[in-house]
Every structure is written in structure tokens, then in C-alpha cells.
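quick one before i forget lol
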Amino acid sequence: MPRMGRVVLPNYPHHIVQRGHNRQVVFACAEDFQRYLSDMGELKEAFHIKLYAWCLMTNHVHLLVCPESAAGLGQFMKSLAARATRYRNRLMRVYQQEDEIRELTAGLRAEKAHVEQLQRQLEFTQEQARQRHHDC
């Protein structure tokens, strides 16, 4: 059985709580908070939402909002969540690429060290061969 739809009263304040997926961290740094506030400011104008108060926690958000229309609140929250998700996914791709670069760099350093070791062994072997040849 589907859940009942929320009752949204136009021009009446609503307390909204929005959590991260499985209560995961939503805001990891100051830029994350600033981005969310910027998006919220832009979208409240687009969907005719009055924003009375907000509290941004690391893993959830509290908003006190007043929509001019019943549909506006849902559209506002949906758009805000979608922007936050796209922003987080872009960051995760960047972090993953940085991790891959670090792994490749570490692998190249290890290969370089191995090549240098082989080069020293070759030089040592060549020096031993020269000494044997000189002794003859």
C-alpha cells in the first residue's frame, strides 16, 4: 500500500527535515554548506517559497518554509535534493579520479625503484665481468 501524500497548506509554515541517504554525511566541508545555501536561495525564488529559518547539520537539514502553493513545496524540495545529489556525485567522481591518479603514481614510483635496482645490479655485474676480464 503506498504511503499517504503529505498535506501541504499554502501560505502556512512547514518544518521540513531532509536527511542524507542512510543518514550519511551530506556536508563534508564549508564549500558543501555554501553550495546548498546558494542553491536554496535560487530555488526558493523559482518556486515562490518563503524561507524563515534553516539549520544545516552534517547529515541532515531542517528548514522552516512557507510555500505560496501546495505544488511549490514538493518541487522546491525535489529540485534542491536533485542539485545536492548531482553536486555530491560530481565530487565523488573527482575524488575517485584523484585516488586512481595516486594509485598510478605509486605504481610508477614502485616501477621506477625496481628499474633503478635492476640497473644497479646490471652495473655491478658488468663491473665484476670487467674485473674478471682484467685479471685474465
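fyi The two ends are 95 Å apart (CA to CA).
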